[in-house]
C-alpha cells in the first residue's frame, strides 16, 4: 500500500509522523472521509470545500491549493489501484513543542490513505440497525463546533462506547438542549407522513456530504424534505428512520431505544433513496 505523505507516495511502513505532531499530541488537525465508486471519487470538491472550512475554523493555514489536494487524492487512488473504497485525508497542525501553541507549529502535514472501510456488518443494510440514545451529549458549538471535522473525535468515541455497552452498533447523540443532533459518525433522517426530516446542522450535526446528497435525492424522488428540531419522541414515532455517511452510505434503522420504527422493517422511502444513491455514486464523481 502506498500512502501520500507531504508530497510523496511512500510505503505504508515509511508513512510515519513525528510524536511531536500536534495532531497526535492534541487532536489539532482536520480530516475528510471520502468514497470512491467504480473509479469515481464521490463529490470530491464538496469534501475539499468542507476541509477548507474546517481549516478556516481552526485558523490552520493550508499551504496547498484545492487543486493540489485533489490531484494528490487522485494520485493516491491510482497508486493503489483503488476503484472502490474509502479515502482518508488528514491535515495535522504539524510538529511543535510540548505546549498547546499552534503558532509554534510552522508546517502542517498532509497524508492520504486509500483503503477500504466497512462501518456496519453487511446484513444490517437489508434488515436495518437497532440503535439506542446515549447519555453523552453532542458537544456544544460554543465549545467546539461539531461542523468542524477535526481530529478530536472523543465526543463521538465516548458515545460509540456507550452504544456498544448497551449492545447496539450505533447511537443517537442529543445536543445539550435535548434535541437529536446526529449519530456517532452519521447524520440521521426520519420519514414522517410523507416527508423527510433531518436536524439542522445548527443542532449539532456535521454538514454531511451524504446528507447533502439526500436533499438532491428527495427532490428527484418527489418527497418533500426539510430541517427541523426533533426529539427522541419524533424518532420513536417516525414511519422510517435512516442514517447517512460516507462510511455508512445509507442504512435503515428499525429500532430505537427498544421502540420499533414503523412496522419494524426498512421502509419504502428508504428503498427509493437507496436506489437513487446507488445510481448517483457511480455517476457523480471525479474520475481518477
Ligand atoms: N456526522 C459525523 C459525526 C461524522 O463523522 C460523519 C462522517 N463520517 C457524518 C456525520 C456524515 O458525513 P458525510 O456524509 O460527509 O460522511
Structure overview:
The protein has 288 residues and is α+β, with helices and mostly antiparallel strands. The chain has two domains: 114 residues, D-amino Acid Aminotransferase, Chain A, domain 1 (2-Layer Sandwich), CATH 3.30.470; 163 residues, D-amino Acid Aminotransferase, subunit A, domain 2 (D-amino Acid Aminotransferase, Chain A, domain 2, Alpha-Beta Barrel). It is 29% helix and 28% strand. The chain has eight helices and 16 strands. Strands 7, 8, 9, 10, 11, 12, 13, 14 and 15 form a nine-stranded mixed sheet that branches. The model has no long low-confidence stretch (mean pLDDT 97). The site of 4'-deoxy-4'-aminopyridoxal-5'-phosphate has 15 residues, from α6 and β13. The site of 4'-deoxy-4'-aminopyridoxal-5'-phosphate (PMP) has 15 residues, from α6 and β13. GO terms for molecular function: L-isoleucine-2-oxoglutarate transaminase activity; L-leucine-2-oxoglutarate transaminase activity; L-valine-2-oxoglutarate transaminase activity. Its cofactor is pyridoxal 5'-phosphate. It is an enzyme of class 2 (transferase). One of its GO terms (biological process) is L-leucine biosynthetic process.
The SSE order reads EEHEEHHEEHEHEEEEHEHEEEHE
Q: Output the CATH homologous superfamily of the largest domain.
A: D-amino Acid Aminotransferase, subunit A, domain 2
Low-pLDDT residue intervals, each spanning 5 or more residues: none
Structural class: alpha+beta
Instruction: Give the cofactors and ligands.
Output: 4'-deoxy-4'-aminopyridoxal-5'-phosphate
Rg, please?
A: 19 Å
Number of helices: 8
Q: Report strand %.
A: 25-35%
Function: Acts on leucine, isoleucine and valine.
Family: Belongs to the class-IV pyridoxal-phosphate-dependent aminotransferase family.
EC number: 2.6.1.42
Catalytic activity: L-leucine + 2-oxoglutarate = 4-methyl-2-oxopentanoate + L-glutamate; L-isoleucine + 2-oxoglutarate = (S)-3-methyl-2-oxopentanoate + L-glutamate; L-valine + 2-oxoglutarate = 3-methyl-2-oxobutanoate + L-glutamate
Amino acid at each position: 500500500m502506498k500512502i501520500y505523505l507531504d508530497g510523496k507516495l511512500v510505503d505504508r511502513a515509511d508513512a510515519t509522523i513525528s510524536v511531536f505532531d500536534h495532531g497526535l499530541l492534541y487532536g489539532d488537525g482536520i480530516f475528510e472521509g471520502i468514497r470512491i465508486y467504480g473509479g469515481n471519487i464521490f463529490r470530491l470538491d464538496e469534501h475539499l470545500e468542507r476541509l477548507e472550512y474546517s481549516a478556516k475554523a481552526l485558523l490552520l493555514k493550508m499551504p496547498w491549493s484545492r487543486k493540489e489536494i485533489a490531484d494528490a487524492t487522485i494520485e493516491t487512488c491510482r497508486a493503489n489501484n483503488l476503484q472502490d473504497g474509502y479515502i482518508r485525508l488528514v491535515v495535522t497542525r504539524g510538529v511543535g513543542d510540548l505546549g498547546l501553541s499552534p503558532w509554534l507549529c510552522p508546517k502542517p502535514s498532509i497524508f492520504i490513505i486509500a483503503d477500504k472501510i466497512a462501518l456496519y456488518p453487511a446484513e444490517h443494510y437489508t434488515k436495518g440497525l437497532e440503535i439506542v440514545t446515549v447519555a453523552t451529549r453532542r458537544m456544544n458549538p460554543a465549545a467546539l463546533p461539531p461542523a468542524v471535522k477535526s481530529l478530536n473525535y472523543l465526543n463521538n468515541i465516548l458515545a460509540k462506547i456507550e452504544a456498544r455497552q448497551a449492545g447496539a452498533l450505533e447511537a443517537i447523540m442529543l445536543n445539550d438542549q435535548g434535541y437529536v443532533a446526529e449519530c456517532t459518525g452519521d447524520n440521521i433522517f426520519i420519514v414522517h407522513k410523507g416527508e423527510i426530516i433531518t436536524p439542522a446542522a445548527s443542532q449539532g450535526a456535521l454538514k454531511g456530504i451524504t446528507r447533502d446528497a439526500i436533499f438532491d435525492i428527495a427532490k428527484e424522488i418527489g418527497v418533500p424534505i426539510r430541517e427541523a428540531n426533533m426529539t427522541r419522541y419524533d424518532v420513536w414515532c417516525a414511519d422510517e428512520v435512516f442514517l447517512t455517511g460516507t462510511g455508512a452510505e445509507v442504512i435503515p434503522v428499525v429500532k430505537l431505544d427498544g421502540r420499533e420504527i414503523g412496522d419494524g422493517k426498512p421502509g419504502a422511502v428508504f428503498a427509493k433513496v437507496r436506489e437513487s444513491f446507488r445510481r448517483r455514486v457511480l455517476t457523480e464523481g471525479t474520475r481518477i
